[in-house]
Amino acid sequence: MLTLLSVVDIGDIRPIDHTMFFDRVTSCAPPDCDAPVPLDLPFSTPARYTPGVEHQVLQFTVSLQDVPTQMQAFFIPKYNHHLQITVNGALVHALPHQRHPWMAPLLVEVSPSLLKLGENTVMFDLSGPVPGQLDLQPFYFGDREVLSAPYDNRFMLTQGLTQLALGLMILLTLGYFVVWLAQTKERMFLWIALSCLSACVFLALLATHATVGTYRISESLHSLSVASYVLFMLKFVRSFLGIAPLRSERVLPWVICGGVLIAVLLPLRYVDAACSAVNLCAAVAGIITVAVMWQHRHSVPKIDFLIFFPALSLALALAFDGLFLVLTHSQARSMNLLHLMPLLTALVCLWLILSQLIRSLSAHAQLTATLHSTIAEKSAQLETSFNELAMVRKKQAISQERSRILLELHDGVGGQLVNTLAYMESQSIEDPTLRTALEDALRDLALMMDSIESQDSLATLLGMMRTRLEGLLAKHGVSFEWQIQDEPLWSSGTPSDNLHIARIVQEAITNVIKHAQASKIRVYADHRRVTVADDGLGFDVDAAQRADRPHYGLTGMRRRASKIGAHLSIQTGQTGTSVSIEHIAT
After folding, report:
1. Cα separation of 504 and 555, whole Å?
2. Cβ(56)–Cβ(127) under 8 Å?
């Protein structure tokens, strides 16, 4: 980009049609200019730091074949610092107490009445205070209407853009500070606001070329504002990318402040060198900024990188180009483009923030749509949950009512059964069939009560059944082998389902006692199945099902297994019978 700037050479001074182009004058000593010395333009005098004012008197002639009738003018693209112009001894321009703005062109009107046929003597008196460095670029003389257009173009490229950038920086500074005050946690708005504030100081000095205090203070302030601008821009880029503070952010401020302090304290002739060192620190900060942006290019949207990185690189090239012209006092180009740097970076930073805002609004819209969808989904789920909760409450009410009825049965029917057995014993009534029926009824009633008291634990219910059946098994000479490996897990696990399983187990044990002539019963349970096995006589399953009465025996066992979604399997043979209830996974 630096090479491109050199090749393009914006503001190059070349001859203009229908005008006189002066790139050679003579230097002489006032007031007579007896010994003129030829001088090629552009020229620049070395800096002088001694008290007083530096003068340079230049003389040349304007040859006219005809006396013009319209207003003429001198168009001077660039000079420093004060200029006094006389034509044929008549003063046409003099502003001895006003310092000329930075790189601003000058258009001086010359009345036709001051001109004559033939040679017209023109004298330029250049002057300037400390540092006394004078500068003059090639210039033009001709019709004012012809020279107005190039003058306007150059003024717009120099002072016009500088003033535009200054106005924009003031607005951006206020705007960014307002945004930062609204979001104090977002440090990047603070850094960009401070960067714009530094640019305001820098551009104000360029736009007015005003000297704040002495030359020493003015130059130190100029260098400090440029360095601060670049350093705060580095902090903004780092905060925008969301990376940790860099070591250079802690080192460079000390170096910059040290350079400014040296410029303020050392003799006047060292001011330019110290300020140049500060400007070099600013250039280093600019290089680090570009390098950080390139290193983290994948963490920003592609369109933002394609806009911001070239603009940041171009701004850095403009800074280096301006620094080169200042340090070398080069006259190779007549226009320093340093004033475009803050304007360019401010615009692309504004683009970055607006782009981030647009993405945030888009993300907010998507989030809002997602929230609406989630709310609708959750509302449907809540409605379903409410319905399910209502069903659960209904089932709980039914279960509570069932428990109440069972308690009534226990207290009423159970009491009658116990009283009947006690009466039979007291009256010595020997009726085995009746006694067995009463005991079976009591066990059945106890099983229903156990299914309620055991809540949802099938293992607990089976344990209660074991306690109640051990006496019966011992009476018939059958041993009980109990193997509960794990809590059986079923789809619902409600007391009703557990009661169905317990009745199947009870029926299987009852069948063993009545028919199998077994000596041992083994009850096994894990998380998927419950098994009742014996070592007694086997039986014909098909024949037993055909002979079974409805609602009892094997038919009843299968019906109960089907109600709870379980699979009932019976394996029988000469070595015994095994009845298994297995949970069917859904």
Report:
1. 11
2. yes
What's the CA gap between 131 and 126, in Å, rounded? 14
Give strand pairing partners of 570: 579
Which of 21 and 344 is assigned the larger pLDDT? 21
Peptide bond into 131 cis (omega under 30): yes
Q: Residue 351's CB: how many other CB atoms inside 10 A?
A: 15
Q: Are 138 and 41 in contact (CB under 8 A)?
A: yes
Using CB atoms within 10 A of its CB, is residue 96 exposed (0-12), middle (13-18) or buried (19+)?
Answer: exposed
In whole angstroms, give the CA distance from residue 321 to residue 344.
15
Q: Which residues contact 344 (CB under 8 A, 6 or more apart)?
A: 311, 314, 315, 318
Predicted local distance difference test score (pLDDT) of residue 447: 59
Q: How far is CA 7 from the centre of its chain?
A: 41
Whether 536 contacts 478, CB under 8 Å: no
Q: What residue has token string 């003033």? A: 163
Please say whether the beta carbons of 523 and 482 come within 8 A: yes
Q: Are 15 and 339 in contact (CB under 8 A)?
A: no
pLDDT digits (tens, 9 = 90+) for 250-261: 888 888 888 888
Give the distance from CA 344 to its chain's centroid.
24
Tokens of 491: 């789809």
Beta bridge partners of 72: 110, 143
Which residue reads 């006219």 in tokens?
Answer: 64
Average pLDDT over residues 156-164: 85
* 202 close to 376: Cβ distance less than 8 angstroms: no
pLDDT of amino acid 22: 93
- CA gap 18, 294 in Å, rounded: 50
Q: Are 197 and 226 in contact (CB under 8 A)?
A: no
Q: Which amino acid is at 128?
A: G
Q: Which pLDDT score, from 0 to 100, does residue 415 have?
A: 57
- Strand 118-128 to strand 72-76: parallel, antiparallel, or no bridges (unpaired)? unpaired
Q: Indicate the pTM of the whole model.
A: 0.60
Say if residues 530 and 473 touch (Cβ distance below 8 Å). no
Integer Cα distance of 290 and 250 in angstroms: 18
Per-residue DSSP letter, 261: H
Structure tokens at 271: 């001011």
**Beta 479-484 vs 520-525: how paired, if at all?**
parallel
Pair 522, 481: CB distance under 8 Å: yes
Instruction: Look at residue 550 in the predicted model and tell me its pLDDT.
Output: 44
| 107 contacts 72 by C-beta, under 8 angstroms | no
Helix ranges (DSSP H) in 410-538: 415-426, 432-453, 458-475, 495-511
Listed in sequence order, the residues at least 6 apart from 148 whose beta carbon sits closer than 8 Å to its beta carbon are: 73, 107
**Residue 486 pLDDT level (bands cut at 50, 70, 90):** confident
